[in-house]
Specification:
This protein is α+β, with helices and mostly antiparallel strands. It has 28 helices and ten strands. The protein has helices at about 1-5, 10-30, 35-45, 60-80, 80-90, 95-115, 115-135, 140-155, 160-175, 185-200, 215-220, 240-250, 285-295, 305-320, 325-330, 360-365, 365-370, 405-415, 430-450, 455-470, 475-480, 485-500, 505-515, 520-535, 540-560, 565-575, 585-590, 600-625, and strands at about 225-230, 255-260, 265, 280-285, 300, 345-350, 375-380, 385, 400-405, 420. Strand 7 (about 375-380) and strand 8 form a beta hairpin. Helix 6 (about 95-115) runs antiparallel to helix 10 (about 185-200), helix 8 runs antiparallel to helix 10 and helix 26 (about 565-575) packs antiparallel against helix 28 (about 600-625). Mean pLDDT is about 80; it is low at about 210-215 and about 305-340.
Amino acid sequence: MIDSIASGVAPSTLVFLVLGATLVAFMWGRFRYDLVALCALLVSVVLGLVPADEAFSGFGHPAVITVAAVLVLSRGFERAGVVDLIAEQVLKAGDRLLLQLMVLVGTVVVLSGVMNNVGALALLLPVALRLAREHNTSPSLLLMPLAFGSLLGGLTTLIGTPPNIIISSYRGNITGENFSLFSFFPVGASVALAGLAFIVLVGWRLTPRRTGQAASADMFDTASYLVELKVGEDARANGLTLQQLREEIDDAIPVLAVVRDDKRRAGYAFYNTLKAGDILLLEADPEELKLLEDKAGLSLVGEHEDAEEEQGASQARENVMTGGDAGEHAGEKKAAHNVDTEGLQLVEAVVRTDSMMTNRSVRQLRLHHQFGLHLVAVARDGSRLKQRLRDIRFQAGDVLLLQGSEKEMHESLATLGCLPLANRELTFGQPRKMAFALGIFALAIVSMLFDLLPAAVALTGAAVITLLIGVLPLRDGYQAIDGPVIVLLGAMLPVGKALETSGGAQLIADAMMQAGSQWPVVVTLSGLFVLSMVLSNVVNNAAAALLMAPIGASLAQGFGVSLDPFLMVIAVSASCAFLTPIGHQSNTLVLGPGGYRFGDYWKLGLPLSLTVMAVAIPMILWRWPL
């Protein structure tokens, strides 16, 4: 039936229909982009646009392998302590905003050239937040420039960002020779320096100053919700575990601690049954307090409690607000209750775009049972959500306040796909491992520079050696590979090829050549830049490069000029996703912590995009003449 329908329609028309539906699905965001890409691939196979025996050839493409290897090496740098060593120096920036921006953005630009740009941002994001809090700087002034800097830095080398790898491989398929590791450097470095100068001198003034709104103390105003409830003799809660208590009230109200016999035990680690006289320290609004009173028989600690007990309660609140570190307050102010302050481990974390939490609730994830975490609060767009925790479906960019074991917290957050923001201590790897990590990477670079090995082989070899000698544990290596991006690339490569083989790319190129026939080729080149840049702001930048590469090649062939400037234009413009928070993972990661709104991005992103374009096109034509 499908074949009979498709037989009467030109292949190019079918490709446009498939790609149109794919782009709409990407922009809609209801389904994750890797799932959308797989659907596009399967539909293309069914319609005969992609041969069935080549459907999954993209997963073995050198570009896909290279991206996976770079992700593993990036995690190896983190584990070895290379990046934390740099971050320690970043934290020494003074209280002058321009200096903070110069150091932060400049560092992320450099790091993004040698490791995955999302990974570079993820490592410096907690550093930026800590810097903002120590110097009373609004996080919103630092985080968007930091995210945009990670995109600019990716332009400088082959391995900096997936579009560069894709464009290099595409050139190799056509000419038999890929771009080398530093082929992108003359243009990319010029653009990155211009972008850095613009952001530091002018651009930060275009970001919203959300003073305090995105800071932890305001997003999570825990003191306004923290209460102490007592278990009475006749309370239904008497004899129940905390899990049974949650089932009794049918809600996920977080119990942060249980006070018994002047000893406080963290809620996530309390597995005993409650008994009369226990005091529960928990987060609850007036509606939830009534629920706890009606269904569990819990009552507020009365005002008749002596002043000594009230002092102990105040100290408990202070410890919760500061993360519950016993050492910090032991000598400052001793609680009259002598309540143990150890173990109330609170951490802020942002939900990544590839997180398993996206569009799922706390119950579906079984946070406590599977991951040992209690959800305390959720902030979105810079303010705390007021709805009941069990009703919240998480979104990328949400900032979560979680409680759990300090030992297991890091692994749980990594599995869930969350990036810790607060209380992140810099951990330095062993010097020997750091030297190994740098040495292995240097060998890979040398082998690529002297054409001893292709990029995919050299980088994969470096990643394997990193795992073999223990710089990075095997489990962390697998976790470092961004599955959704790999699936997106593997699925869209055959679809992008179908755009070319069906004649669709040529049709678009013909239309662009006809429109620009009365103008110099550079005008069409500029139009290609704008088209690719706009596309990268609504779909993944790798997908934009995959779709635009055949169009650029057709334009170069039609004009009878060199292929290289057209491919370079696509490589640069596909990484210029500065206009929306959905165009790139880096933009989404700072959405919640910075307290930004959707419309905030273009205010800095548009002039930055124009600056990049004004610098990039002349540099491309100088380095890669027509």
